């Protein structure tokens, strides 16, 4: 009979005590795994989603992090807007003419190539501030779902589960078409052809009932914040009551609110503002050029979303995660102490058993190995149960987590390595479906449990090692 078989029989003989001891270790490992998994997946989701195909965001001067959270993740409130003419600085004359072809020439003024047009691959305006129920309404242009590409295969980043992209204008719905994210559709039951009315600033008493939008498309799940948003045609957004910028010399009348403005005539340039602009530059040097020039002015600011999200996690989220990890590791250590106490307290009852084994020829090292094996069985066995429990628990809560955050957690998704460690490993290895998952912090748990088991099992094992055979057998009844 092997050492492991003997150790397993000894554990079974003390089934109740062994079960309670392993259960305490399972709880500790469950907490450690849950913290690593949730933090790892959420931070990876934030970091990945901070670069949704653009590398810069332009918006009103103020908090940089607030601008990123508001524009990219729809988690904060917009502060101020920037003039529509600032957005035009990122477009060529031809692009401006195409976007404003439905507008009267006298309302759009003289068009020229924008200052940053040659440095910009694309620029997409977004207008925020309205809600549909609890979901953010995003006013933008159809190109929002056309220019973003998947870097792997150059396919559009966003696809439609049902329907199509909204159009700037058509005879059926005019300027009032909308596309809804997958989570919004699932939670609200919206379907193609439904009419929706946005509320101004989320106020349930200020709903734009006079400007309903027709749902023409439902996005396929993308695992991004866009799953939790409603996208409407920006031209229709401008025509809703209270969305037109009014000059100080003008009075707010019916023509500004949109009640008498022809639905087929876009809002004039001078009455337009945008909340932010999503920008992808045409070369590696353009971000520096654009950022320096824009930030020196008093109209807007440029922020790099990846840098802001990284700073957020380094300064706020990571310390909280570290504290939680310290607490959960201490719980595991306390569970290890309980293993020590359990085995050590059983030594008095097992002295005769150990003495008989020694008398039958077992070496001191064999006896010591049996006790250490018991400690490893209790520790690793409880750890495996805790690891499985954490994954099943989070998988069961995945629908709720996805509905609130957009983060999807699979049954056997593993906690990714921190970015600082990922950069040390070739990307081909990390992205490999078979080898990549092996580089996870969760695989440190088992070796750590074995080391802990050896440390806490050493005292009772040494006690067994020092057992005096003759004295024990002679004193036994």
Structure report:
The chain is of the alpha+beta class. The chain has helices at residues 3-13, 15-49, 64-72, 84-88, 93-99, 105-108, 182-188, 234-239, 254-257, 286-296, 305-359, 364-396, 398-405, 419-422, 427-430, 445-465, 469-475; strands at residues 56-59, 82-83, 120-132, 135-140, 160-163, 177-180, 195-196, 199-200, 213-219, 229-233, 273-274, 276-281, 301-303. The protein has 2 domains: 3-47 and 312-474, no CATH class; 56-249 and 256-303, no CATH class. Helices cover 48% and strands 13% of the residues. A hairpin with a 2-residue loop joins strand 3 (120-132) and strand 4 (135-140). Keywords: Cell membrane, Membrane, Transmembrane, Transmembrane helix. InterPro entries: ABC-4/HrtB_transporter, ABC3_permease_C, MacB_PCD. It is a multi-pass membrane protein. This is Peptide ABC transporter permease.
Give me some keywords for this one.
477 residues, alpha+beta, 11-stranded mixed β-sheet, two-stranded antiparallel ribbon, 17 helices, 13 strands, Peptide ABC transporter permease
């Amino acid at each position: 009979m092997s050492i492991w078989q003997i150790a397993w029989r000894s554990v079974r003989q003390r089934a109740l005590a062994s079960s309670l001891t392993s259960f305490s270790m399972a709880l500790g490992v469950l907490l450690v795994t849950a913290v690593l998994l949730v933090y790892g997946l959420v931070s990876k989701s934030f970091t990945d989603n901070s670069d949704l195909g653009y590398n810069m965001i332009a918006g009103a001067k103020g908090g940089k992090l607030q601008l990123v959270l508001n524009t990219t993740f729809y988690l904060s409130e917009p502060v101020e807007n920037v003039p529509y003419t600032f957005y035009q600085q990122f477009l060529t004359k031809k692009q401006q003419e195409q976007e404003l072809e439905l507008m009267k020439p006298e309302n759009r003024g003289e068009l020229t190539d924008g200052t940053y047009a040659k440095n910009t691959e694309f620029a997409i305006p977004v207008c925020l501030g309205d809600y549909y129920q609890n979901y953010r309404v995003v006013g933008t242009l159809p190109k929002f779902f056309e220019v973003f590409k998947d870097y792997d295969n150059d396919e559009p980043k966003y696809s439609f589960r049902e329907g199509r992209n909204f159009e700037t204008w058509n005879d059926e719905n005019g300027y009032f078409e909308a596309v809804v994210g997958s989570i919004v559709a699932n939670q609200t039951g919206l379907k193609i052809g439904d009419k929706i009315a946005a509320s101004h600033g989320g106020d349930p008493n200020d709903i734009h009932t006079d400007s309903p939008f027709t749902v023409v498309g439902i996005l396929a799940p993308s695992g991004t914040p866009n799953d939790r948003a409603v996208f409407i045609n920006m031209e229709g957004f401008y025509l809703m009551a209270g969305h037109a910028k009014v000059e100080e010399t003008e009075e707010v009348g019916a023509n500004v609110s949109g009640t008498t403005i022809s639905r087929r005539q876009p809002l004039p340039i001078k009455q337009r503002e945008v909340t932010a602009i999503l920008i992808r530059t045409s070369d590696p040097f353009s971000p520096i050029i654009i950022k320096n020039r824009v930030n020196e002015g008093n109209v807007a600011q440029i922020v790099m979303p990846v840098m802001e999200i990284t700073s957020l996690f380094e300064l706020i989220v990571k310390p909280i995660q570290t504290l939680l990890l310290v607490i959960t590791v201490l719980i595991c250590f306390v569970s290890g102490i309980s293993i020590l106490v359990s085995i050590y307290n059983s030594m008095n009852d097992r002295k005769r058993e150990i003495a008989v084994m020694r008398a039958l020829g077992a070496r001191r090292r064999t006896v010591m190995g049996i006790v250490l094996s018991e400690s490893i069985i209790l520790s690793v066995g409880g750890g495996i149960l805790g690891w499985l429990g954490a994954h099943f628990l989070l998988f069961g809560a995945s629908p709720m987590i996805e509905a609130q955050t957009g983060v999807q957690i699979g049954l056997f998704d593993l906690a990714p390595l921190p970015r600082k460690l990922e950069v040390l490993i070739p990307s081909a290895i990390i992205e490999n479906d078979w080898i990549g998952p092996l580089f996870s912090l969760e695989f440190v748990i088992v070796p750590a449990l074995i080391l802990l088991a050896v440390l806490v099992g050493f005292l009772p094992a040494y006690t067994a090692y020092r057992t005096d055979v003759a004295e024990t057998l002679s004193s036994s009844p």
